[in-house]
Amino acid sequence: MNSKLLILFFLTLFCTVVEVNATEIIHIKHSKDDITTRVREAIQNAKDKDIKLVFEKGIYKFLPEYAFSKFSFITNHGNGYKYVGFRFENFNSVEVEGNGSEFIFHGRMAPFQFENCNKIDVKNVVIDWDIPFTFEAEVLSVNKEEKWFDVKPIIDGHSWSFKDNEISFPNIDGFSFRELGHAHCFDPKTKSTFYGAYGQHLTPKKVEKLENGIYRIHQSMRHYPPKGSVIAAKGGNEFNRYAPAFQTQESKNVTYDNIIVHHALGMAFLFERTEDIKILNSGTYTREGSNRYISSTADATHFANCKGDILVENCRFEGMLDDGTNVHGTYVTVDAILDEYTVRIKLQHFEQLGFKFADVGDEVWFIQKPSPERGEVNEVVKAKFINEKYTELTFKNKLPKTLSKDDILENKTWNPTYTIRNCRITKHRARNLMIKTPKKIVIENNILSSEMSSIGLRGETFFWYESGAVNEVIIRNNHFINCAHGGAEHAVLWVSPRLGKGFDKTEIYDRNIIFEDNIIETFQNRIVWADRLEGLVFKGNTIKQVDAFKSKFPNAHMFDFKNCKDVVIENNVYKGDIKKFVKADESSKKSLKIKRNKGIKFK
């Protein structure tokens, strides 16, 4: 039997192919065996550019051995060859109907990759791993003077080993992390991040095996994990972001509906240069009753240089080791001015390498030091990719005469509107929402509880080089509960641009925020902490002081403004006994208005 007949026999046995209304429909029958080859060949042998995969409800196993492999540039992850469960490229439309099926992955795999697809619909799918890429252990005792702490690792469902005074994990298919690496502490009673805890980086001098399954970790640390917490680690930075569960690049008209990600070896949902996105009725969280604390090892949702409209609605995000969402553009630096029309640009952060900053037809802002203000606009007429770090861009019009090396460029074309509503984002590291786009942002009717600030607005011409000074933000009818409960000082709303050397650190950066009709239950003092913001209206909010925890920063002010303009605080109600309400520098005081509040005093 020749190879073509083998493939035909294979597809007939396990898949049924039907063509309806020019869409090729492929029915995947359930099997307890590795499904990877069947899925790969069904996609690769599709005859049409409109394809729909329909899975019979069941639990499907995906193994990397026969998976499609491709070198992948993945922003905010590690680039390299990835083993991909579902790879869709250059399709007009793609539908995946899971019918409530569970896709269980093993080892280092990227579950879904979409590139250059015009329409994507994925529905009713659960993503998980048979063995998580995490190490989790109960902290039994801490001795800061002798610089050690004792842990009892979780065994059931996890994979790790002890050898030569080291703990390694997950030890799957020959892969182990070189160190315990980035870690965070969780409360075993609530599975939330532990009150007052700090992020850790575990590189023990040695690990000592004691009795009764207990191990002593010897390491000098600034902040030791709290006794009684569960410390959860995801390995060192070099390898701990393998791939998102769903990576969507250069695509449009995307809908993920009823998608649950219980574990991911990076972000749950990542979008790059993608237009019009909906994530509906979905979630990132560990299974009910599971002994796992970490769902995705990075953000639940992440949007890099997208455009059109983004809607995240009726979702639940918990257990991530980073933000609930991060929306941003990308700053690049001018590496060289090649002629009066052409520059060579440089990507700065190692997790940006390979990212397409701009293409032909894109409009770009020029940002020239010392001002962080968006300046002249020019259109790209030629983009020459040199390597993963450098690209040459040629523009329609001449470059600004005063443009200099190390000035900043920002893509104007690729920025989205963003709406998140009716979502629950709790029990995870970092911020609930980190949003940086100049277009309209709406945050409404959500339940939010954060380890750091709940809502962060922070463009950076430094380190991460994530762009997006905001111009219109509406935050309304949300319920904030015990936000900023980690060890570092944060606020419910944190506006703090991070600008590099040579930029004016006093010039206005963000603008026009309305924070209204929210309920804030807090044990901390800080509610709004803002720098270089013009136009804040904080009105109609109810702030209730609760005794869930002891405030770590009792001398902080409820409102703290620096280099701000046109701030209005009105018609709010505070119920509690703190005494420090408003702190403002001289420039912020000039246009500060505080009126008709109950329980909030300002002299």
Give the topology.
Layout: H1 3-14, E1 15-20, E2 23-28, H2 36-44, E3 50-55, E4 59-62, E5 68-72, E6 80-89, E7 93-105, E8 110-115, E9 120-129, E10 135-143, E11 148-153, E12 161-163, E13 166-168, E14 170-172, E15 175-176, E16 181-186, E17 200-202, E18 206-209, E19 215-218, E20 230-233, E21 246-249, E22 252-261, E23 269-272, E24 275-280, E25 283-284, E26 301-304, E27 307-313, E28 316-318, E29 325-337, E30 342-346, E31 363-367, E32 377-385, E33 390-395, E34 408-411, E35 416-421, E36 424-426, E37 433-435, E38 441-444, E39 447-448, E40 455-457, E41 466-467, E42 473-476, E43 479-481, E44 493-495, E45 510-516, E46 519-522, E47 528-531, E48 533-539, E49 542-545, E50 559-562, E51 565-570, E52 573-575, E53 582-584, H3 586-589, E54 593-595
Parallel strand pairs: 2-3, 3-7, 4-7, 6-8, 7-9, 8-21, 9-22, 21-23, 22-24, 22-25, 23-26, 24-27, 25-28, 26-29, 27-35, 28-36, 29-37, 35-38, 36-39, 37-40, 38-42, 39-43, 40-44, 42-45, 43-46, 44-47, 45-48, 46-49, 47-50, 48-51, 49-52, 50-53, 51-54
Antiparallel strand pairs: 1-2, 5-6, 10-11, 10-20, 11-19, 12-13, 14-15, 16-17, 16-20, 18-19, 29-30, 29-34, 29-41, 30-33, 31-32, 31-34, 32-33
Give an overview of the whole structure.
By secondary structure, this protein is mainly beta. It has three helices and 54 strands. The chain has a 24-stranded mixed β-sheet that branches. Strands 17-16-20-10-11-19-18 form a seven-stranded antiparallel β-sheet, with no helix packed on it. Strand 12 (161-163) and strand 13 form a beta hairpin. Residues 1-13 have low confidence and may be disordered.
